[in-house]
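Folding Query — how this chain folds
Tokens — whole-number codes for backbone shape
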Amino acid sequence: MADLSAPQFMRDAAKRGVEWFEAGLAGDGVTAGTVREARLMASGEVSEDKWRRVSAWIARHLVDLDAPGADPDSEDYPTPGVVAHALWGSIGGKEGAMRVKDYADRIVSAVEAESRNENGPPAVITDIDDTLFVDGVVNQPVVDYLDSFDDTLVFVVTGRFVGDRDQTVAELEAADIDFDELFMRPDGVTSTEFKQSVAARLLETYNVMVAVENDADAREAYQGLGITAIAPGDVPFVEDESDDTEGEPMESSYRAGKLSGMSKVETREFTTTIELRAEGDGNTFSGYAALFDSPSEPLPFTEVIKRGAFTRSLKSRNDVKMLWNHDSGAVLASTRSGTLSLVEDERGLKVTAVLPDTTAGRDARELISKGIVDAMSFGFSVPSGGDSWSSDGNTRTLKSVRLHEVSVVAWPAYSATGGTVSVRALDKLAQRAEVDADALQDVLTRIEAGAESLTAADRALVEKVLDRLAPEVEADEVVGDLDLLALKKKKLDLLERF
């Protein structure tokens, strides 16, 4: 067990500090608590908490030893700063102060080595400003690095003050950053002291492996606790190591844009028919927003959601809402309010919700009870390595996704039957390509119907959309304008689903 008693040189310094204090040489900033702890130190007694505070205090007050009166040969010696240092066990100028700081760091490291729970759940720590966000923009390499830790808790430990919690949570959720707990600084403590204190407490329960932190002092504090500390600019690059049993894996489409449009858009919706039923008083229902290992209809590619795809997202404390038809203005329930429960079972992502007594809630209850509405959908994005593709690019496997919302839908958001394009998706596609939606719908309808000829303007419209939104895809043995446009319509079908 670590020896917490003060070494003789610190006892002597503390004794001298008390004598100077009693002689009236201390400054107004010296507290009764500091004097009381100095008396104990003079007798050799130092608490674990005091050892944790010694190093940080000396680091902050080294500048006090630069004053001319801090020189023992000065007629102004000792200055109030020198007296304060002595009360903390430090005497002998900056060299003596650093000796005390190093000794305190060794004591704390020894204590942490004893208390560290190496068998606890694995965890990582990250800061926010200039770490997760740089100049208000998500620092994607750091996010990808944190996502690369499988089954690992993410603790956000920030120097932001606790009064900014609501705004901070909103920023993290808006950026789709998954985290398990947010620790924010109270008043009256420095950022480094706070982060060191939080990490020390976490080590008692968790095996904290890495801290990503932009501040050098905080990194030093983490390292003093035995935690590997990395600056945001030094995080390892995360390679996409997707694997697929159907063939040689392709790089994630979200990283390389192997299929049309997917490199540009990171969120989309996948709809699956569910069993939806009213329960109890009619305000509670349950159903499935996603089914595991159930191949989708062609999108034109086939998609499969693997068991555990939602595990990481559900472990985070991000608020997930249930909406009506993906309308953020029509909220039916939320996990934070306790009215929405999301659970992965053997079948898929099970949703249980209590509908509110609102217009949207009453409408949903009526339509569900009459069987008019019997489908759900979920909105998600894919982190690095969260999906994989078969070698022919026809099958996509979702292994880990960030869940944004679930919705009760009046009809599938994107129909995959018969090549029919949903109006809502087509409007989005036209808006992104800056073309007229009605004109695009007319062309696609005529292609789908097998029109014998199309105008040059029709071809130009389709080309414009593809040129703006999709990379080139080589076509083999294409004969005639309609065959070529039919192929390009398949690309449009894919684009409009994202």
